[in-house]
Amino acid sequence: MDKTKIKYPLIIIILTLGILLGTQIQKVFSTDGLFENLKKFNDVISLTQKYYLEEVEVDKMVENAINGMLAKLDPHSVYIPVKQMQTVEEEFRGDFEGIGVEFQIVNDTLTVVSPITGGPSEALGILAGDRIIKIDGKDAIGITNDDVRKQLRGPKGTKVKVIIVRPGLKETLEYEITRDKIPLYSVDTHIMLDKETGYISVTRFGEKTTDELKTALYDLQEQGMKQLILDLRNNPGGYLNQAVQIADLFIAGDKKIVYTRGRKKDFNEDFYAGKTFPFEKTPVIVLINRGSASASEIVSGAIQDWDRGLIVGETSFGKGLVQRQYPLQDGSALRLTISEYYTPMGRFIQRKYDNKKEYYEDLAEREEEEGENLTHVAESDSGRPVFKTNKGRNVYGGGGITPDYISKSDKLTEYSTSLLRKNVFYLYTLKYLDSKGESIKNNYNDLSEFAEKFKISDKELKEFTEFAKEKGVEMKEEDFKKDKDYILARIKAQIARNYWKNEGWYLVLLGFDKQIEKSLGLFSKAKQMVNN
Questions:
Q1: Does residue 186 sit in helix, strand or coil?
Q2: Can you say whether residue 100 is alpha, beta or left, with left for phi > 0 and alpha for psi between -120 and 50 degrees?
Q3: Same domain, yes or no, for 126 and 269?
Q4: Do 251 and 103 share a structural domain?
Q5: pTM for this one?
Q6: Looking at 149, 183, 217, which one is the last position of a domain?
Q7: For 32-98, where are the alpha helices, taking DSSP H only?
Q8: Are 223 and 356 found together in one domain?
Q9: Which residues are catalytically annotated?
């Protein structure tokens, strides 16, 4: 048989089908105007590039156009440029590769705030307060934050040499550091506040958050934890699946934790508690504030809806939208809202976002009255939709998670705000430890002894205010008197962090935390919720 007799008719058929298919695809695009609009956009870019008065950067034009399109959608659909992608991925993944130090540039000098636990710098004995003056033989004085990251980060297994000046030593120190994977922890700390009360701070919901939280819970359990404060204040959220897994640690049975609904049915999902954990009967108080969003609200919403524990603090952010991240060809990404999420009892907690400027300003202007809110009378005249918890309490949708006990954080005075803005606490502590660090090492055996006995003297406090004045923060007597306890606690916590890292920082500061104090007095109520 002559194969060419079959070959040519077959090609004609394929071409004809291709033309017809192409025509039909074009019709599909044309139906909703997509094809014409894409052509229009391409024409505008092309004409501008060819004929505009000045040279134009097409990449920037396209990015601006993308941002302009997304500005018409909700506040959480965003474009992520290539240069930001590495940081975004590291934060969600929970690690990066480098030498493992937190740092600040102080008076043009690269200063180690703290070596990161488990990183190569800590293993070599690099300490908080060390000044890095050379990197691979090059002068590091006057280095920028971006240059620090470029020079100290790098692939695992590569090496970098640094020269360090350490306060109290005449000779400089040379270290050759082998870069490694550096963990970025989302569980900031876990400590026992007293013999029965565990405390855990979760700062975001990344890939490893559930594993970190379980480790912390089991450790506190071994230390005698009978009740828990889970601190989600200023936690902006993260992965939805991590929120589900974390809620599952505390919610028994096969109860619903959250569900999502979108325009496309593919994005409709229902998530349930499915595993058994020893913390399902532990009395829990969840701390939230206006900076608690998304995954934080999923966890606190599920615990509130099932009457599993108490929510304390301030009304949360109010973000009930779910995003999915789509990679683009050049390494950038589109984070697009694909669905809405609802708490177990059906609350959609997203705030209105018609005016995006007001969407964020509303948080700063929000006012709440302190006190018990178990029946949620605080929201009863808000016009928001009402729902019932598992035990019949009223709760409301449409505006975040409102606590069962509203407890506001103290507002700092203008003086203390300026001290923070000018980084005075850290800078003073650095100076203080340069001269008195050895005495702290010699006089205090451990953190608990330091927390109990260490005090800033009146003379040292006067030195602090004079130092602040040198840094451009003028003394305001009335503000100072109002915030004196906070200022003393902040200095002490900064010193504690130098030796005991986050554990030292939190143990000192939490002793002056009004919302923590309120929570500690509410565990009798939290226990009733578990036992009923």
A1: coil
A2: left
A3: no
A4: no
A5: 0.86
A6: 183
A7: 34-51, 58-70, 82-93
A8: yes
A9: 294, 305, 319
